[in-house]
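dumping the sequnces here before i forget
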Amino acid sequence: MAKSSKVAVAAGAPSVFEFADQVSAREAAAPAPAPAGQLHLITFRLDGEEFGLPVETVREVIRVGDVTRVPQAPAHIRGVTNLRGRILPVVEIRTRLGLAPLVPRSTARIIVVEVRGRVLGLLVDSVAQVQKLPADRLVAAPDEVKSAHTTYLTGVVHLDDRLIILLDLALALDAPGASPS
Amino acid sequence: MSDDNAFADLIQDYIAECLPLAEAVTSAFLALERRWRDGDPDAADVARLKGTLHTLKGNSAMMGLAPMQLVAHVLEDLAAHVLADPAARTELAAALLVEGSGLLTDLVQAAADPAALAGAADEYAAQVRVHLGAAGDTAAAPLRLERRSTERRELGADAAGTIRVDFRRLDTLLEIFGEAMIERSALLEVHRQLAARYGARAEITDLDRVVTALGATMKRLETALMQTRLLPIARVFSRFGRSVRDLARAEHKRVRLVTEGDDTLLDKTILDRLGEPLVHLVSNAVVHGIEPEAERLAAGKPAEATLSLRATALADRVQITVADDGRGLDTDRILAKAQAHGLDVPSTDPAAVQALIFVPGFSTAERVSRVAGRGVGLDAAAAAIHELGGGIEVASEPGRGTAFTLSVPLTLAIVRSLIVEVDRERYAVPLSHVAETVRLEPGTLHEINRRGVAMWRGSAIHVADGGRLLGTESTRTAPRNYFVVLFAGPRRRGVLVDRLVGHQDVVVKGLDPTLGRPDVVSGATILGDGRVACILDAAGIVALREVA
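..and the predicted 3d for all of it:
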């Protein structure tokens, strides 16, 4: 699939009114940290599987606007987008996990995270929910999950019949083996 | 904020306040040294300098910075000594004053790590005490922590009505301005749509007026905002007083540094990147350009050489000249060396031959010296200037001297750009790097060795495909409509694009390190429609070796 530089959510270009809304949108402040013994996750879907990130690492969730490709950027970088006047790198985490790049639909979102002092956007198929659960529900990843997703996971949570895979945010950074700059 | 952070902020304030003072004292003592050497024992400004040293001592004491306090203190004693006794105004005393104020400048600059130079401070203080003791003075008075409450006010007095602002705040202002520009573009679009729908109604006419006025106001705001970011080039020039003196001394030469246009203003984004190339040029002049004293005398020139740094403001650029009255460039030798190295010599015209010294790896230096040898100076300086969107030229006359003329833009923060489209991606190209845009007519473009070549202004230039250069992964086969001739210094390269969208002032933003270090883009900006566009790195593109 040829990678398109434009990731328009709706058909056609977004109207200026939508754009103005986007500019003025100021989303909620960071949530309070979860009490000890509690795991506070934001969960999202990639290719039908459910993944989670600790809420404390997430700044906000935004709709997918125009993402501009950056020539010669590393393979896992989808491009950059305008986050209220700031230029936000958008990471294609699907390719990091061995999946094909996302063909965004209206459910697609960018999860804005702060990792090692950098603010980055993670492109996901959709955002599921915010989930509170006891910390002891987090267990080491079983082998079949490991083989599918190799590195970049910190554990899994079994919840009823769901399996939530916790991601390590290091995946958003440099290519495997590359020294962090 | 933690105490550590608070202290770090205080240290930054201390540096911001004291560094200009220490630099000013150093320049004044350098001038004094020159006067005394020439037999003019005037010490009229020493009383004022002593006051400044006292302020420096007080500020250092307040921060608990003992080495600075000590050096300022002994300098004050030394100043008092020469002030009181004209017979004490010797070259040695002047040299001690210069050395001390230079050391004080270094100490203030390194205030975040004061222990590093503490030994040097003690050593210097001992030296001054020996000097004063030998001059029949009583031992220096013990250090006293004194600070009059009026000192801070005195400091501000010569700059009434000015405040000091952290530069990052100005960057924030500029960012907010950038957002306002984008929002204005959105407003213009709404205005256009409304005008198309409702025609010439009274409300639309009112809106026309408001939109036009807003545009003019934004332009004024931009100009005013850029004004606040401008700093005098003296900030760069002032570094050279001492380094030229020290370097000349190490080379056993006598060099007089003259600066002109010190109050010429430039944006900090340029000033920060101007120091290094100037250091190369100035060192080069002292080490290679200026002859040893005996050679100068034999040629009937004054033993003391003159090195001048001159800044001139042009409309939207600043011209800086580094000129020496040394031996000049030896055109024959440059030519011989260029031919020996197999370099392409376009013409034997002296100007063309002299321009060869900017070619990477080329140097006419006979000796390899500590500072400017090894042939890295000039090409590195030229590359640094080209990256800024500037130019560098050399003019030289045998036996009369050499002058390097640099021309740099006023700012890198807001850059007038050409917006182009390649495979439906938009890019900003800084106009400072655009020589021309050319409409592609059938037969303009030729293929030689699978590279696109076009005749442009009488010579053949390489024209690369924008899509391949930028990796757009397009499958298009239709020819593109235009090529943009990019230049950086003497290098040129054409880039094929589909569309020229227009001109726009763009607020330049850096690329996050996560995005790697592309050769072909240098930053990004947000266009009027809110989309991000990458800024082409013209200097990088013209320097690429392998492009389609």
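Chain B is about 45% helix and 20% strand.
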